[in-house]
C-alpha cells in the first residue's frame, strides 16, 4: 500500500473590502497634500521662475 499522505497547509487569505473611514481619510489627506504641493511648485514656477526669462 502506498500511503504517502501529505499534509498540505492551505493558506487561507481573506480579502476584505473594509470601508474604514480612518483609512479613507488618511488616503484622502495624503493625496490632497500631494496636490497642494504640486500646485505650490507650479505657482512658484509661474510667479518667480518664468518672469526671469522675459
Automatic annotation (TrEMBL):
Protein name: Uncharacterized protein
Organism (species): Saccharibacillus sacchari
Amino acid at each position: 500500500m502506498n500511503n504517502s499522505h501529505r499534509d498540505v497547509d492551505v493558506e487561507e487569505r481573506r480579502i476584505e473590502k473594509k470601508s474604514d473611514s480612518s483609512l479613507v481619510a488618511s488616503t484622502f489627506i495624503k493625496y490632497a497634500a500631494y496636490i497642494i504641493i504640486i500646485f505650490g511648485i507650479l505657482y512658484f514656477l509661474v510667479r518667480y521662475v518664468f518672469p526671469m526669462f522675459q
